[in-house]
Amino acid sequence: MLRLALPLVFAELGWMAMGVADTIIAGHAGRQMLGAVALGHGLYYTFAAFGIGVMLGLDTLISQAYGRGDIPDCRRSLAAGIVTSFLMAPPLIALAWYMGPVMDWFGIDPALKEGTQGYLRAVSWGTLPLMLYASFRRFLQAQDVVRPVMFALVSANLVNIFGNWVLVFGKLGMPALGAAGSGYATSLARLYMTGVLLYVTIAGHGWRGWTRWPGWDRVKEVVHLGVPVGVQISFEVAVFAVTTTMLGALGPVALGGHQIALNLVSVTYMIPLGISSAAAVRVGQAVGRRDPLGAKRAGWVGIGLGSGFMASAAAIFWIAPRLVAEIYTSDQEVVATAASLLMIAAFFQLFDGIQTVATGALRGLGDTRTPMFAHVLCYWGIGLPVGWWLTYPQGWGARGFWTGLSLALILIGIVLLAAWQRRIRKVAEWH
């Protein structure tokens, strides 16, 4: 599990680092551009996350096919993923190009709106490469080929940083494009990532199978398994975007503390996210070879690793929250707010690790709907309303929303752990 998971953990951290690099470079170009890139990044990923999620349906199909030794079927699923990518990209690009009315509805400043729209239109050109990258990544990692995935994402950060330097500031004879330059740099980095994984796929498999028409039935299978994952991820991204927007009304101290705490829990989340991908692969492979004990062991090992790491993160957040928060700022008011939120985060870290890896393990079994319902109902039906009630009527401030989200994550962890136990018992009945 670790041999498969560790490169994927570094890949997830590399993915996050790309957004951090964009933010840092934008910050050096001025407050206006920082706002445009931050807003554009948030808006784009609210719906782009759906497309990435749909591709996760390939985990089930390819890992199970690989487990039963059916490599041609693995290639057929990759072909279906490529077809699905071409079908999804145009509407996602259109959403990026025409977000103006949405920004008007939120009352975004016209100058900020212009920069944000420039970023969105530039970054949208990387949508198809992003979808194709996700397809090739699922194909390779389901067959235990994970180091190229790690290399592609880590090295893509260098491409992105260089592209930002050239296109944002106008170096090497290029015009200074500002926020749009950051979007173009990200698109180039995605094109590079796709090129790396395309090369690895051709080197390992040639052109056999995956360049043929997969049939609409296989495309429908990918969509059937992937859409619930896309909905789950989109709603999860959206709930934090809504929370951030609502906390903006409480002033810069509350918002600053929230952003610091959110960034830290996002970093810790990357580790179980990588383990979750490995668990999906290992469970799926075991299902494919009709090995119920192997599926059970793979799922529980993944859940143990993910929850073990998050328990350690929880201990740090509880024992030394101010020390961690001071990495980001010396403003003691913001540090105090962030520290109070990190102590709340300590309560849900363990359950966040459980639910993240359990989601992957269930995906390996072919269950993508249970995690979707759990996330949508617990986040939007319980966590967000409770958080709003504690924040405003009860006057808890930022701690109110974090308490509500903590409650949601605890419930999701419990529900998905129970779902995993129930599903794996049914798998054991094969014997």
Number of strands: 0
Tell me the number of structural domains. 2
N- and C-termini, Cα separation: 24 Å
Secondary structure class reads mainly alpha
Q: Roughly what fraction of the amino acids lie in strands?
A: under 5%
Major sheet attributes: none
Helix content: over 70%
Low-confidence stretches: none
Describe the structure.
85% of the residues lie in helices and 0% in strands. It has 431 residues and is mainly α. It folds into two domains: 1-214, no CATH class; 227-431, no CATH class. Helix 2 (31-55) packs parallel to helix 6 (110-123). It starts with a helix and ends with a helix.
Give keywords.
431 residues; 16 helices; 85% helix
Per-chain topology:
Elements: H1 2-28, H2 31-55, H3 57-67, H4 71-97, H5 100-105, H6 110-123, H7 127-141, H8 147-169, H9 179-205, H10 216-247, H11 252-288, H12 292-319, H13 321-325, H14 332-365, H15 369-391, H16 398-428
Helix pairs in contact: 1-2, 1-8, 1-11, 2-4, 2-6, 2-7, 2-10, 3-4, 3-7, 3-10, 3-11, 4-7, 4-10, 6-9, 7-9, 8-9, 10-15, 11-12, 11-14, 12-14, 12-16, 14-16, 15-16
